[in-house]
Amino acid sequence: MATNEENVQTQNALIETAGSVLLKNYLQQPTVMARGQGVELFDVSGKRFLDMTAGISVCALGHAHPELSARLAEQTGKLLHTSNLYFIEEQILAAQAITERSFADRVYFCNSGAEANEAALKLARRYQHVVKGAPERNLIVSTEGSFHGRSIATVAITGQEKYRQGFGPLLEDVAMVPYGDLAAAKAVLEKRQACCFILEPIQAEGGIIVPPAGYLQGLRDLCDATDTILIFDEVQTGVGRTGKLWGHEWDGVVPDVMSMAKALGGGVPIGAIGASEKAAEGLTFREGGAVPHASTFGGNPLACCAASTVLRVIEEQGLLANALLVGEHIEKRFNELVQKYPESLVESRGRGLLRGLAMKSPAGPTYKRCREEGLLVSVAGGTVLRFAPALITTTDNIDEAIAILDSVLATR
Ligand SMILES: *Cc1c(COP(=O)(O)O)cnc(C)c1O
Question: What is the CATH number assigned to the segment(s) 4-52+318-410?
């Protein structure tokens, strides 16, 4: 076995190679992850990290979950890809797993969150133009501070200027309204020019912003009154993240369409939209026309095997209840930190295992110091430290994370 010194050299050499071969779009931390187990990650140098990021809300079952690993290995030896020229057993079963557990009647699969939102937008436009015969209903209404992805259309509907700069001209016919402001939504929806209203049940990348009580219901009523498609972007809040399977369950309000991705495959790339029977007509094939939407890889056997397994394991192992319990523990421990460091911290926000610790200044330096001390967290909205650990996380894991964070905050 290589000595620790050799491992450090291997890691440094990899990072040096990265500097000459990778496009420099990212701002990676100087570490190369080698393997994971549950909520632990180990880098190539052998350093251990406690992972409160779960790969940005992706690895719902933690790293190297035995059941997910076994099912994927089995599927890999059986069938990886055939295309949507044929029916795919795993895709049918994954769609059934989603429809059985949500408002959705029908499911379309793609490969990422941005792609899922693209599909939702295409559905809404075509629903109005073709199904309802209303070609003037082009407007897409979105919320300030939102995040919906990085494709040209999804940056256009992302309510944060920094993601749009340098990419214009973008999709036109987008209106931004303040998140949580029903009067602003009413003013724009009443004109009946909008095809859809898209929002996150909790704004995640924007800084863990929980909407005011009654907001989602108010939007539901406005969309019903104006025949506007209501889209919930559940890419981050979905699949158990908030302690309920879907983030919108907290408000008891169902959308016409929801987008999913991140945790759905437990680490295997997959995206999807779930739609009501009515909304699904927006992407339904019509005799004599072209297939209205498609994806080469969408709904492939491997990704769908992952999705079915993740949904089943969450249920069988009671991980929603665990997410609620451990999430409350984070809230309690975050509030203690807010009491202890009032000069640096503002408040604790979030639901389930999507938690933000709002700081008075940029969270970047704290995020870096935590990593050096063996704790992985992420930053949302510039000044918010985000904990979004795997749904298998225990209160002991949280106590270890808080002890590290506390020591970092103490020496700021
Ligand atoms: C991450 C995220 C996306 C984009 O997902 P990708 O898989 O990176 O394209 C879209 N919406 C929300 C709410 C997200 O958190």
Answer: 3.90.1150.10
